[in-house]
Amino acid sequence: MEDQVVQAVKELLYEVREMRQDMEAFKQEIRKDMEAFKQEIRKDMEAFKQEIRQEMQSFKQEIRQEMQSFKQEIRQEMEAFKQEIREEIKELHVRIGKLETKVDKLHDKFELHAQKQWQTEADVYRLKKLIGIE
Fold first, then answer.
1. Which of 39, 56, 112, 123 could connect to 118 by a Cys-Cys bridge, CB 3.0–4.6 Å?
2. Are 131 and 110 in contact (CB under 8 A)?
3. Neighbour-count burial of 82, counting CB atoms closer than 10 A to its CB (0-12 exposed, 13-18 middle, 19+ buried)
4. Which residues form a coiled coil (predicted)?
5. Average pLDDT score over residue span 19-32
6. pLDDT at site 60
């Protein structure tokens, strides 16, 4: 009977060793699978990074082009605005010149009339009316 127990224990030990070996083989297989999975994920991540970098470069280029276009548009608008201002200034100079001419004529008339003697209220009234003071 003792031999049977010893035999049963030996068989159990043998089975436990086999199970340990199977477990170790399974661990190795899982490690290999995990390593392969990690490598696959790394490749996918690297491909994703490259794709994102390319998209970012494309986006940067697009934004740069839009900015250049916007700058050019603003420059053109500024030049047009400057030209309008120049034209308005020229018109103002012309108007100022005309006003100066009128002032000079009025001054000449005033000088001419100042040499005359103004004796009556009617004369003073006519003088004021002539130079635009009422």
1. 123
2. yes
3. exposed
4. 9-109
5. 94
6. 96
Q: How far apart are CA 111 and CA 43, in angstroms?
A: 99
Tell me the two tokens of residue 1. 């009977």
How many residues can be counted in the chain?
Answer: 134
User: Alpha-carbon distance 105 to 111, whole Å?
Assistant: 10
Spell 88-127 as b/e; 16+ CB within 10 A means b. Answer: eeeeeeeeeeeeeeeeeeeeeeeeeeeeeeeeeeeeeeeb
What the block records as the tokens of 33 is 């699978």
pTM of the model: 0.46
| pLDDT of residue 119 exceeding 80 | no
Taking a C-beta distance cutoff of 8 angstroms, is the pair 131, 109 a contact? yes
Q: Does position 112 have pLDDT exceeding 90, yes or no? A: no
